């Protein structure tokens, strides 16, 4: 009983060791190619065969230590290169981020024609962006991103094709300025806005003054015309009144009464039948108070004395 149990345990242990070992040894004799993947078989670092068809391919040479396999993906890939410093045509430093989408068309070139694909892409993108963006102003770069993206792609596609890479898309994902340059730019924009505001206010003030002058001229012309019409209307009214003598005399009398101001004017309408006549009123003497007579006599004496004194002085 114990002997059978021991054999069972040994069989399980042997199976768990031998089966993985067999699988591991069998994998040394075949190459598995995934979809959209190529496998490069090299001997002493030299390419001898490329497996392109998806599936399992027998390769007994793979077990040799001098042989190695390189798996190359043909799927679309992307890279993002951040904070690339370039200068525009005015010398303004611009910081950009570039997004690039590509795929490997020739795996043997991508492996053997370039040593470090990542650094090579970054280097060629930096130099190309510097040379192209350096011919534009900052505002042109902001407004023409699509055209610049296409220009960058056309500029590097021939170079990357030598590496077996096809560029699908390049675009500027982010664009910024240095903090001090941004502040200077904001100050310049603020100054231009202030100037534009002052110009608009000045134009508005001049337009308002011109409109006021034109309005005053039109009002003065209308007032002058109205005054002329008023005089003409008054003349016509007097003419029509003169056609009716009784009404005209009544109007003149009312007009004379309207000129009298009760608080300032004393009106004399004549004497009554039992009062003085006009001749008697003219011959009536006006009696003055005694104080007025004394003051008049003293003034005459002073005037006489002053006259005598001036005569004697002249003598």
Automatic annotation (TrEMBL):
Membrane-spanning intervals of the chain: 6-25
Domain (Band) ranges: 27-193
Pfam family, one: Band_7
Alphabetical list of InterPro entries matching this protein: Band-7_stomatin-like, Band_7, Band_7/SPFH_dom_sf
Lineage top rank: taxon: Bacteria
UniProt subcellular location: Membrane
Recorded topology in the membrane: Single-pass membrane protein
UniProt keyword annotations, A-Z: Membrane, Transmembrane, Transmembrane helix
Gene Ontology, cellular component aspect: plasma membrane
Similarity-based family: Belongs to the band 7/mec-2 family.
Name used for this protein in its record: Band 7 domain-containing protein
Organism of provenance: Fluviispira multicolorata
């Amino acid at each position: 009983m114990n002997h059978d149990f021991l054999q069972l345990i040994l069989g399980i242990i042997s199976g768990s060791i031998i089966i993985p070992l067999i699988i591991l040894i069998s994998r040394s004799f075949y190459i598995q190619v995934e979809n959209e993947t190529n496998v490069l078989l090299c001997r002493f670092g030299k390419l001898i065969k490329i497996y392109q068809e998806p599936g399992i391919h027998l390769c007994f040479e793979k077990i040799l230590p001098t042989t190695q396999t390189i798996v190359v993906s043909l799927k679309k890939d992307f890279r993002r290169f951040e904070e690339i410093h370039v200068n525009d045509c005015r010398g303004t430093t611009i910081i950009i981020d570039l997004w690039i989408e590509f795929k490997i068309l020739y795996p043997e070139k991508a492996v053997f024609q370039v040593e470090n694909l990542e650094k090579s892409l970054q280097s060629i993108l930096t130099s190309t962006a510097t040379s192209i963006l350096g011919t534009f102003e900052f505002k042109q770069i902001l407004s023409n991103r699509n055209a610049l993206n296409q220009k960058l792609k056309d500029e590097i596609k021939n170079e990357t094709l030598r590496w077996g890479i096809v560029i699908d898309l390049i675009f500027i994902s982010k664009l910024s300025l240095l903090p001090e340059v941004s502040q200077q730019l904001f100050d310049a924009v603020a100054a231009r806005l202030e100037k534009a505001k002052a110009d608009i206010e000045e134009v508005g003030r001049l337009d308002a003054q011109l409109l006021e002058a034109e309005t005053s001229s039109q009002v003065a012309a209308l007032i002058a015309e109205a005054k002329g019409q008023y005089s003409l209307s008054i003349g016509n009214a007097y003419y029509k009144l003169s056609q009716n003598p009784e009404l005209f005399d009544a109007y003149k009398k009312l007009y004379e009464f309207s000129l009298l101001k009760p608080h300032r004017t004393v009106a004399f309408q004549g004497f009554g039948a039992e009062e003085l006549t006009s001749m008697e009123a003219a011959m009536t003497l006006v009696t003055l108070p005694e104080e007025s007579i004394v003051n008049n006599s003293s003034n005459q004496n002073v005037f006489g004395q002053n006259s005598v004194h001036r005569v004697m002085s002249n003598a």
